[in-house]
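Write out this protein's structure.
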Amino acid sequence: MRWFPRVAAALLALVAAPASADRGADGRFDVRRSSHFVLRQDVDIDHRSGPQGSRQFERDVLAVLEGAYERLEGDLGLRPRRSIDVLVYDSRVFDGSFGGLFGFRAAGFYAGVIRVRGDVAVSAALASTLRHELVHAALDAAAPSLVLPAWLNEGLAEWFEARAVGRRGLGGGQVAALRDAAARGALPSLADLSTPGFGGLSPDAAAIAYLTSYALVDHLARLRGEDAVRELVVGVVRSRDLERSLQRVARTGSLGLEASLRAELGIAGATGG
């Protein structure tokens, strides 16, 4: 999910520390494994068994993750070969441990391990966060040294998250939000979105940055077909060259993609630095 450059040192420290070193609400994480994931959770569930118990919660979390994993290759051309560690924290522990690292209330982030703010059941929001962070984990597994611009990294995660629940294209409210931001001079340019992360942004600015990133990836899918997104990811992972891969897949570069999206939305020119 949404992690910012100013917290990179703290997140690198988390990568270096083994997941087993984390402490949950009661000092211990319950562990459960599936085909592709190692889940550790310490959410505030009083009982282990039954339909509302912690074991059912673990099964539900892993079902979401495994379902998303099966989509990865078809949607994005990614299929991690190693097991992925996932930590689901009690919400109070997550907020207390990581709340100060983010510019707004975070639901999860990836730093070598998927770390998620938990709930007592798998809500739609929690499922979306798991799918979103899985994309970051899969990209890291495919190309550990590759640094993508934030618009592509976050846009792919947002696009995959939307597809998993059957959403295609921008909704009317999303289009209106982008046009309103443009009218206020607050719509980020591609240059604004091409940093490694969205550090220093206010909650409102971050929301528009994520939405614009999603819109760019979604525009590519509508412009050249949904297979183009997968082909772009495969090309970038293989060549480490985004512009070359975009030219091959979309017959335009990133600036051309931005211009095409703005033209579709009826937004003139770039607005950021």
